[in-house]
């Protein structure tokens, strides 16, 4: 069984801490032999705060590490490569540098680090090469524990954007637009990059406030007051998709990553009764076109 925690509450930071505490044993085991913890928030825009990972969600994760003595002898990196604007502006505008008051953190702009060529699908499903940040290639950095923290949002191309898409697209450098070859190609590309190059060890969905409608930037807020966490990103993202009122099998990259119709049978969901927190997100205005990936 795949264990996922789900917490509901009135405080974003506490929700994150509680969700992670329910997985303390599993996270401790996963952190063995890892001396770097790399946190990947979401700054698709460096100006629209609703579209970004809230600083307090990251603080909740850092407090969880601190309270459980998991920071000891480990380096902490917060790394992002913004799609719209300069990454540093996101760190400033969203007050991420405030975290330096309590923690030793290195901030990293993934758009400006050493590059590594990866293969993706072109418009005709031929393979083409693009640049990604070398530090994000999992097989080349076995000492790094990768954490993807993001809000749940609807999307203008792939229906939803959650922990998998967050870490993958932010890791691409000046070639982010090149994954937008076709509806089918981008879904295949996300699945390929996850399998071959870039994927989180821990997925955290900060569902305190999500986004529906014309996401990932121009949508409207959805107050859910939940947090999800798990060490299997495919299942975490699939459960969150389900909670957004969307069939995970309708999301191309989740389908290509092997999610099944009866995936809920594989889950041990601890904390809340997940069905109580399901709601119907309004999709992007182009959703009919997005479903044509099949």
Summarize the structure.
The protein is α/β, with parallel strands linked by helices and 294 residues long.
Descriptive account of the structure:
The structure is a single chain. With 294 residues, the chain is of the alpha/beta class. It has one domain: LarA, N-terminal domain (Rossmann fold). Helix content is 28%, strand content 25%. The protein is built from nine helices and twelve strands. The protein has an eight-stranded mixed β-sheet with strand order 4-3-2-7-10-11-1-12, with helices on both faces. The chain has a two-stranded antiparallel ribbon with strand order 5-6. The protein has a two-stranded antiparallel ribbon with strand order 8-9. Strand 10 and strand 11 (220-230) form a beta hairpin. Helix 1 packs across helix 3. The two termini are 29 Å apart. The relative contact order is 0.18.
* CATH superfamily (homologous) name: LarA, N-terminal domain
Q: What's the domain count?
A: 1
Shape: globular
Residue stretches low in confidence (pLDDT < 50, at least 5 long) are none
Distance between the termini: 29 Å
Q: How does the major sheet shape up?
A: 8 strands, mixed
Write a concise keyword list for the protein shown above:
single chain, 294 residues, alpha/beta, Rossmann fold, eight-stranded mixed beta sheet, two-stranded antiparallel ribbon, 9 helices
């Amino acid at each position: 069984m795949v264990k996922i925690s789900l917490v509901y509450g009135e405080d974003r930071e506490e929700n994150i801490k509680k969700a992670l505490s329910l997985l303390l044993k599993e996270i401790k085991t996963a952190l063995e032999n890892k001396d770097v913890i790399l946190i990947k928030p979401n700054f698709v825009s460096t100006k629209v705060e609703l579209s970004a990972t809230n600083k307090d969600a990251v603080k909740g994760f850092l407090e969880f590490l601190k309270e459980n003595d998991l920071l000891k002898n480990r380096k902490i990196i917060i790394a992002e490569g913004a799609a719209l604007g300069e990454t540093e502006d996101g760190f400033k505008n969203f007050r991420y540098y405030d975290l330096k008051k309590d923690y030793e953190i290195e901030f990293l702009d993934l758009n400006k680090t050493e590059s590594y060529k990866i293969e993706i699908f072109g418009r005709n499903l031929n393979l083409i090469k693009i640049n990604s940040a070398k530090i994000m290639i999992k097989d080349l950095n076995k000492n790094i524990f990768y954490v993807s923290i993001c809000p749940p949002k609807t999307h203008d191309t792939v229906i939803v954007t959650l922990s998998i898409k967050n870490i993958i697209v932010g890791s691409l450098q000046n070639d982010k637009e090149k994954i937008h070859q076709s509806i089918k190609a981008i879904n295949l590309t996300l699945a390929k990059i996850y399998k071959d190059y870039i994927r989180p060890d821990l997925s955290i969905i900060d569902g305190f406030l999500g986004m529906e409608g014309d996401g990932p930037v121009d949508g409207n807020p959805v107050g859910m007051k939940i947090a999800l966490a798990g060490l299997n990103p495919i299942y975490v993202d699939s459960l969150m998709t389900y909670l957004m009122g969307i069939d995970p099998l309708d999301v191309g990259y989740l389908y290509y990553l092997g999610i099944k119709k009866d995936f809920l049978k594989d889950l041990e969901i601890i904390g809340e009764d997940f069905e109580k927190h399901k709601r119907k997100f309004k999709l992007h205005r182009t959703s009919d076109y997005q479903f044509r990936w099949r």
